[in-house]
Amino acid sequence: MSTAVVTNAAAPARKRAAFRPGEFRIIPSFEANAWMVAFAQSIPGKVTLLSCFGILLWYATNLHYPNPRWKLQIPFLILMTALPQYRRALLSISAVFWTFAIWGPWAEHPAPVQAAIVFVIAAILFRSAGRFRNSILARRPVATLLTGFTLLVMTASYLPHGALHYAIWTFLPVAGAYLWFIAYSLIDVRSKNADPFMRQAGTYQPFWGSTNTPFVKGAAYLRRIEAKSSEQLAIAQLKGMKLLLWSVALDLFLTYAYMPLVHGYLNVPYYDFVFHLSVQRAHFPCYQAWTSLISDFFEKMIELAILGHRIVAICRMAGFAALRNTYKPLTSKSIAEFWNRYYFYFKELLVDCFFYPTFMRYFKRSGRWRLFAATFAAAGFGNAFFHFFRDLNYIEQLGFWKALVGFQSYLFYTIVLATGIGISQIRERKSAAAGWLRRELGPLVCVCGFFCILRVFDYTYVRYPLSESFRFLAHLLGLIS
Amino acid sequence: MKLQIDRKPEIRAFLSDLLSRKGDNEPFSDDSSLLLSGRLQSVDAVAMAVFLEEKFNVDFAAIGFDQEMIDSVNAVSSLIETCN
Predict the structure, then answer these.
(1) How many domains, chain B?
(2) Which of A135, A289, A293, A394 would you call most buried, defined as having the most Cβ atoms within 10 angstroms of its Cβ?
């Protein structure tokens, strides 16, 4: 597993050493240079760092289309750097502005009132769990929250069209966007030094950006990774700068090198297009299925790295030494390790909300099946649950059960993924093979091959029957053309 | 009078073994964060949980589980004290 994913903000900066070719990095480790760390702690250093970061962030967010997010992000980064003692309070204030912006002027369908209602409900749940310690909400916070949300969605899906239907279906997508943030808050209620609700709210869709997956986890994690000294802040910010540079470099590579080369010069068709050809029963050669699938695998990986790096970079700049979301996935030696390195915060969400509760509570006398069951609860059930309730539009349009039937391909995906991770975890405990080919290349090819082929079933935004995924698999295997 | 036993050497040895199996031979103090810093992963947390259940009769089903509880040698030591 990833031992190198360490972001130790407290690590002292190394003195300048002689250059060694083996230590060459495309973007140097600024945070390892004692002079840079000292400079980043001075006022001219902070101004320089913030200016460079601000310009780069502005460039990065406007690279593909005009994006106003930097207008809120940069002022709050300046405030948090200038007033580190009020960092968490500023984070909560930024959440108010950010919430208003993303559900107001920046939203396609503005819903600021619904967002306010979600915050009120979250506060009530948080207070109730803290006050009634023996209630089911306090003892099983995630299970209770998710059951409540499921019942609400099920009920809403069968409401006749009218004012109530409209009101609930404009509320549910907003609630869905905050569901997992609230789950983290409820898990934190039992911590000895749990934050009050106002601080918890600062982590709900924070100003550094997020998807429905909480970046970077919840308040408990932020408490732990927050910079406690000027040196820790400088190191976190230098690492943030480095990560933003990586994000922009990858974005430029993807936009101006990878895509023109693969889809232009090499004429590899887009994967979605080839899959659609298969659905339409059109003929295409087997190699096109493979090239489009492999190119899509790398494209998605780079896109996720760009997004994750940018979010974590802003978080680090705010003074939180968060771990990267994507960290060297192509060095993975097992399926479980790849899953950990590919989308770290999604994996963490499933681990915190499904894996640990299952492992700590059930199958205690079942030996290795205990680990397998917990893995299934997270990578299987939790993964399917997350995606099914993320795409609420299908449930609204089709009704609950039809939407569930339409989800069959992704359900199959989660079963295979959970089985793969489960087996990988058990195998991982055995000693690694010797020799570069068997130790490095062999596992990498197997891991990438597994996830590439699994991609055939990974359909969430567009729903195809499972038979269509198997049909495309048959194309890949050359069984049909 | 309750007898105070120092569990830290045993905990340290277990964590050290866990880290070295992952090729991480960097030193760590009793207060060093191991899980939340990313040096150990969820599978390692599971190994730690099993170790605590079997060696010290810690029942996570009863007390609830949080990574912070087993994040460092000191945290684990205080958890054992609380449970016993």
Answers:
(1) 1
(2) A289
For residue A320, the 8-state DSSP code is B
Q: How far apart are CA A82 and CA A77, in angstroms?
A: 9
In a domain, B66, yes or no: yes
Which residues from chain A sit within 8 angstroms of residue B37, using beta carbons? 6-8
Q: Which residue of B has its CA nearest to A190?
A: B64
Is-contact B14 B51, C-beta < 8 A?
A: yes
**ipTM of the shown complex:** 0.83
Select from B42, B60, B72, B79 the residue whose CB has the most chain A CBs within 10 Å, as the one to mutate to test that interface: B42
- Give domain status of residue B65, yes or no: yes
Which chain A positions have a beta carbon within 8 Å of B58's beta carbon?
A: none
Query: Do A437 and A251 contact (CB within 8 A), yes or no?
Result: no
Residue A221 tokens, joined: 């994690």
Q: Cα A386–A211–A136 angle (5° rounding)?
A: 45
Residue B52, min C-alpha distance to chain A (Å): 12
From the list B23, B36, B43, the residue facing A221 with the nearest CB is B36
Whether the CB of B42 is below 8 Å from some CB of chain A: the reply is yes
Any domain includes B21: no
* B12 occurs within a structural domain: no
* Domain residue limits at B41: 33-84
Pick A2's closest partner by Cβ from B38, B61, B68.
Answer: B38
CA distance B53 to chain A (A): 10
Q: Which residue of A has its CA nearest to B42?
A: A351
Phi, psi of A320 (to 5 degrees): -120, 120
Look at chain A and count its residues: 481
pLDDT in tens, A429-476: 555 556 777 777 888 899 999 999 999 998 766 778 899 999 999 999
Task: Give pLDDT, residue A6.
Answer: 37
pLDDT tens column, A17-65: 455 555 667 888 888 889 999 999 999 999 999 999 999 999 999 988 8
Is residue A468 within 8 A of residue A276, CB to CB? The reply is no
- State chain A's mean pLDDT as an integer: 89
- Summarize pLDDT for A221-244 with one digit per residue, the tens: 999 899 999 999 999 999 999 999
Running DSSP on this structure, what letter comes out for residue A437? I
Q: Cβ contact (<8 Å) for B24 and A355?
A: no
Q: Phi and psi dihedrals of A100, rounded to 5?
A: -60, -40
Q: Please state the rounded mean pLDDT for residues A62-75.
A: 91
Summarised one tens digit per residue, pLDDT across range A394-406 is: 999 989 999 999 8
pLDDT digits (tens, 9 = 90+) for A93-112: 999 999 999 998 888 888 99
Amino acid at A55: I
CA angle A349, A350, A354 (to 5 degrees): 120
pTM of the model: 0.90
In angstroms and rounded to an integer, the radius of gyration of the C-alpha atoms of chain A is 23
Average pLDDT over residues A325-336: 91
d(CA A438, CA A443): 7
State the smallest CA–CA distance between residue A139 and chain B in angstroms: 8
